[in-house]
């Protein structure tokens, strides 16, 4: 099974700041990987709330240096919203992968069966991390200016 790769082009305070490339694991979490991939491409159209099911234009609402970046709330932008391509939320698939090194991507949720569109991970983007704080509130607006799937 191939591992799709997706990208986020990042703006910090409106200025292009780099690209994040993420590899998804449909071999381990097929539903989660498809949800993330489709939210990167925006191919599923509008969600139940009438907003595009797309990460493009959404913000990183939580940045804690040395720990994580969290984003994906394209409905409210503050960590209290988000939606999956399967409806508002979907069930957990498994917990086989662990955060053993920088760059591991995970879905953020509020407990069992509450996966939507929010995600977190520690990535190579030190400039994003430098805009974080211990409380998690970014000191700059960090936006996904574009996103999609990289085709091999």
From TrEMBL:
Which enzyme class? isomerase
> Which terms are listed as keywords in the entry?
Isomerase, Rotamase
GO CC annotations?
cytoplasm
Q: Which SUPFAM superfamilies match?
A: Cyclophilin-like
By its UniProt entry, which PROSITE patterns does this protein fall under? Answer: CSA_PPIASE_1, CSA_PPIASE_2
Catalysed reaction(s)? [protein]-peptidylproline (omega=180) = [protein]-peptidylproline (omega=0)
Physiological role: PPIases accelerate the folding of proteins. It catalyzes the cis-trans isomerization of proline imidic peptide bonds in oligopeptides.
Return the similarity comment: Belongs to the cyclophilin-type PPIase family.
Protein name stated in the entry: Peptidyl-prolyl cis-trans isomerase
Report the source organism.
Answer: Ditylenchus dipsaci
């Amino acid at each position: 099974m191939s591992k799709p790769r997706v990208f986020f082009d990042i703006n910090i305070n409106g200025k292009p700041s780099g690209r994040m490339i993420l590899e998804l694991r449909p071999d381990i979490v097929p539903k989660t990987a498809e949800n993330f991939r489709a939210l990167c491409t925006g191919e599923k159209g509008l969600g139940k709330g009438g907003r595009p099911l797309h990460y493009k234009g959404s913000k990183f609402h939580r940045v804690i240096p040395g720990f994580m970046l969290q984003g994906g709330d394209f409905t409210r932008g503050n960590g209290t919203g988000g939606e999956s391509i399967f409806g508002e939320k979907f069930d957990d698939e498994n917990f086989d992968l662990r955060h053993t090194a920088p760059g591991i991507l995970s879905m953020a949720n509020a407990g069992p069966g509450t996966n939507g569109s929010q995600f977190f991970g520690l990535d190579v983007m030190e400039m994003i991390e430098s805009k974080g704080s211990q409380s998690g509130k970014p000191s700059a607006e960090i936006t996904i200016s574009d996103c999609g799937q990289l085709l091999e």
